[in-house]
Design a protein that fits this description.
It comes from Planococcus chinensis. Keywords: Membrane, Transmembrane, Transmembrane helix. The protein has 517 residues and is an all-alpha fold. The protein has two domains: 207 residues, no CATH class; 239 residues, no CATH class. It is 75% helix and 1% strand. The two termini are 44 Å apart.
């Protein structure tokens, strides 16, 4: 077991760039490591800040007993969502699989190696969040020692619940789609995400308000598994044992499948479609853009990791716009967000929602790097950079077309005050989509990574992806500030800025070339 722990420490240090930061002599590698660690630190700080906000908000409303159900709910849904986006496949097969099985460790440890690594990480996250919560409530919540013991139990149970639940849902979806002979990474990714989040979505739909306290207290795994009731958000010894029993049953099922049916899992989650998608494309001079776009679409659909990490915001924009369009809840049009320092009407909430969906994710930030070592085919072909850019940007635009069309319809029918206002909203959303598509491609052109062993290295951890995410966050923040200030010429100013940046990027791309340094 000591060998397993030492190896896990080494792998985690490598995943979080600590090894690269401490051992690498290459300045670019060290800068990438610093950038990645800075992103992780920023995420941790924001998460702790949100926990503190929840604690004081509940305390001010004399609802502190809801804190741990709400915190457990946020941890469960966030970690589960993150697990699905990261790819269930990573728990079964990875770039280190052959190396792991060659090590002098028991076979069951090799089969569960990636699961154990994820458990260690989630234990640390859950322990940090709950420890912060305990410190904030040390002198507030009654029966503190019981809360402390219950919290320690949650630290152990939550990561196990997250991993086993997401794995069982993912495997069920894969088996079902294989039975129906449906082989689509898009359908698999969306169906897995939807099934996992369905209780949360249903509770959000059925609640009488959009208050996070109502949504997360009821959607807590403690509540969903019958451990607590909504009226008494405390659980005793018997309920704790019940939760532990449910968790152990799920762990036994997952452990049995991993150890006894690992060959079946590896065959189910391993596919050569990515290589086929890269090698089978042929180009015709009669329709260059069509062939390039077809190749890009096949490459995109070949990876469930690529799809699941980039299809969420287009799907969210579509589902959210349809919810507005069919008026599934009167709160969508009547709700006003009121905090201590801002008041935002439903119109501006919808504008901000649309903006976040469009700018938060783009496929182009990793599209060049995702070519991998097959990039030499493009390097030796008589293709201009702009022709390649058009095909890769078109894919990102295509993903958002259904949702954006519905969003425009919602705005023009329900929120627009005039024809000019409608035209400005349409111009703003279209230019924002084109801008983030071009920015992602341009950043990836400047910071490519063609020598990768795991898709996650370019899709979520690549330098270009991180830089594009920072730029996206900055653009979203600027838009939010202008909307909150209710500036009269918000749309005009944003459209003008978008168009100017797009023109500059087009000029830069025309002068650039696809060369490997």
């Amino acid at each position: 077991m000591s060998k397993l722990i030492q190896l896990q420490k080494y792998i985690l240090a490598n995943d979080f760039q600590f090894s690269r930061l401490g051992l690498s002599t290459n300045q670019d590698d060290r800068k990438h490591a610093v950038l990645t660690l800075a992103g992780y630190c920023a995420a941790v700080v924001m998460a702790i800040g949100y926990i503190v906000y929840i604690a004081f908000d509940l305390y001010s409303n004399e609802e502190s007993t809801l804190f741990f159900p709400i915190l457990s709910s946020i941890l469960f849904w966030t970690l589960g969502f993150w697990t699905i986006l990261s790819g269930i496949k990573k728990m079964i097969v990875s770039s280190d699989t052959e190396f792991i099985f060659s090590l002098p460790i028991p076979l069951w440890q090799a089969k569960l190696f990636n699961v154990i690594k994820l458990l260690i990480l989630y234990f640390f996250i859950a322990a940090t969040a709950i420890f912060v919560g305990i410190l904030l409530h040390m002198f507030i919540i009654p029966n503190f020692w019981f809360v402390l013991l219950s919290s320690l139990l949650l630290v152990v149970i939550l990561p196990l619940l997250v991993i086993t639940t997401t794995f069982i849902i993912s495997l069920t979806v894969k088996i079902l789609l294989n039975f129906l002979t449906i082989h689509s990474n898009v359908i698999e990714a969306l169906l897995t995400i939807f099934l996992f989040l369905s209780p949360l979505l249903y509770i959000t739909y059925s609640t009488s308000s959009l208050d996070y306290k109502d949504i997360f207290s009821i959607s807590s795994p403690l509540y969903l598994f019958g451990i607590i009731s909504n009226s008494t958000p405390e659980f005793g010894f018997f309920n704790s044992v019940s939760l532990l029993t449910i968790t152990l049953v799920l762990v036994f099922i997952t452990g049995y499948i991993f150890t006894k049916r690992h060959a079946f899992l590896a065959a189910s989650y391993s596919t050569s479609s990515k290589r086929k998608a890269r090698d089978s494309s042929t180009f015709s001079s009669n329709s260059l853009f069509k062939n390039l776009f077809s190749k890009e679409l096949k490459l995109y659909l070949s990876s469930i990791t690529y799809v699941s990490n980039t299809v969420l915001t287009p799907a969210l924009l579509l589902m959210g716009s349809l919810a507005y369009l069919f008026n599934i809840s009167s709160l969508l049009y009547d709700y006003t967000l009121e905090l201590s320092f801002i008041t935002m009407s439903s119109k501006y909430i919808f504008i901000l929602f649309t903006t976040v969906c469009i700018l938060l994710t783009t496929t182009t930030s990793s599209s060049l790097s995702f070519e991998g070592q097959s990039i030499w085919i493009l390097l030796t072909s008589p293709l201009s950079l702009m022709e390649l850019a058009k095909a890769k940007m078109a894919l990102n635009v295509l993903l958002f077309v259904p949702g954006l069309a519905c969003a425009i319809l919602v705005y023009t029918q329900n929120f627009s005050s005039s024809l000019l206002d409608s035209l400005l909203f349409i111009s703003f959303t279209l230019t924002s989509l084109l801008l983030i598509s071009m920015l992602g491609f341009f950043v990836n052109l400047k910071f490519p990574n063609y020598n990768w062993s795991s898709e996650m290295e370019v899709i979520k951890q690549g330098k270009s992806t991180i830089i594009t995410a920072i730029i996206s966050s900055f653009l979203i923040s600027i838009t939010a500030i202008l909307i909150l200030l209710d500036f009269n010429f918000t749309f005009q100013l944003l459209v003008l800025v978008n168009v100017c940046i797009i023109i500059v990027l087009i000029y830069k791309l025309r002068e650039s070339s696809l060369l490997m340094e």
